[in-house]
Amino acid sequence: MNAGVQLAARYQEWQGQPFDGSCCPVRDVLDHIGDKWTVLILIVLADGAARFSHICRAVPDISKRMLTQTLRELERGGLITRHVFPTKPPSVEYRLSALGESLLGPIVGLVAWAETHHDEIRAARAHFDAALAENGSDGR
Predict the structure, then answer these.
(1) What number is the average pLDDT over the span 19-28?
(2) Is 24 exposed, middle or buried (0-12, 13-18, 19+ CB in 10 A)?
(3) Beta strands per DSSP E along 48-133
(4) How far apart are CA 37 and CA 62, in angstroms?
(5) CA geometry: angle at 41 spanning 53 and 61, to 5°?
(6) Of 1-15, 67-81, 118-132, which range is least confident?
(7) pTM for the complete prediction?
(8) Contact at 8 Å (CB) between 70 and 38?
(9) Rounded CA gap, 131 and 33, in Å?
(10) What is each CA distance from 85 to 61, 68, 78, 82, 90, in whole angstroms?
(11) Residue 21 CA to chain centroid, in angstroms?
(12) What confidence score (pLDDT) does residue 62 get?
């Protein structure tokens, strides 16, 4: 069975159940891993434990506040662990948990897909934006 058929079958199965967005695993998980920073941080941690400053340098366009918030959410979701070492000042390292490591396989697939199709997506955006500018409306 191909991926499209599998997804359509799953969707049909979900449609047959009473709707409760809070119980939807797709919404719940993608809300947490589908943001702008999560996958990049997980990729940094795929290479091993890292301190806050290392992650901040590896993802240079993230603010310290957003990095702190994202790390907390990843820890809350069980994807990373936080280790505090009793030094002066205290030293903190972040590592992927077993659950976080289990997400690396799908991330590798997503990264490969993004690398393969990035030029096509950029070209489609440029085409869309040019048509929008030419027509002067958003087509809705």
Answers:
(1) 78
(2) middle
(3) 50-51, 80-85, 91-96
(4) 8
(5) 65
(6) 1-15
(7) 0.83
(8) yes
(9) 32
(10) 27, 18, 20, 10, 6
(11) 19
(12) 96
